[in-house]
Input
Amino acid sequence: MLKDFFGKKKKYATIPSEQAKQDVPEGLMKKCQSCNKIYYRKELNKNLGVCPNCDFHHQLNAWERIDSLFDEDSFVEWDKNLMSNNPLGFPGYEEKLEKDRKKTGLNEGVVTGSGLIEGERVAFSVMDAGFRMGSMGSVVGEKIARAIERARKESIPYIIFTASGGARMQEGVLSLMQMSKTSIALKRHSEAGNLIISVMTHPTTGGVTASFASLGDYNFAEPRALIGFAGRRIIEQTTREKLPDDFQTAEFLLKHGQLDQVIHRHDMKKRLGTLLKLHRKEAKKS
Output
């Protein structure tokens, strides 16, 4: 009897009730896509979307990216009201665009504008993979080209962060035309003696990789970002060769000379600020 009185009571695992599950706010937790460790979403957001356990860089939306880079209250958006229509009459395209507008709060898959990074004024474009997978349609290309042209006229550096599935199939050749339009705008900007910095994030693929994403004076990327033109399976079937496991990663491209540096997200603002200051000083000396 005394043994029963002083003995430890066994604890049994219980399955949470449906009510208990409903009491946990939706979106409170997030699982790391790499190591599967679960975090409070706020904790991960404070760490700029970088997993504290395995250092995996999760995608940031356009405004999270802007907040992580620009000096407080310095960013001014350009061409906010430009919106895609359905030039080729593609079935269901308008409904998909409207759905993405509601989901992301954006009118298109890129945000452009200007602001201060470490006190240095730059023109800026950032693609958002949450809007049609960051695909490049006519409005995405137009907004980027306008931002580059404005940067040229104001003689300020231009920085672009890419995250894209490539050209937007619903706009056909109109989408492909944006490759040449944005590339020509960058050439004019460069010929005027202005700086171009491209930062490729996960994923950067297709016609975006084959055009403005690869045309910076400096081409950077975030760790482990997927960067490529065609898909891995297509390339293997075409070449009939087995590709390396790290093929089309930022580290692979750095090793083979397509990138200048792979930069951790926590170091990105400081690294960009240093480059901008160096180029401003060189311009003054000359």
Observations:
- The longest strand covers residues 196-204.
- The chain has eleven helices and nine strands.
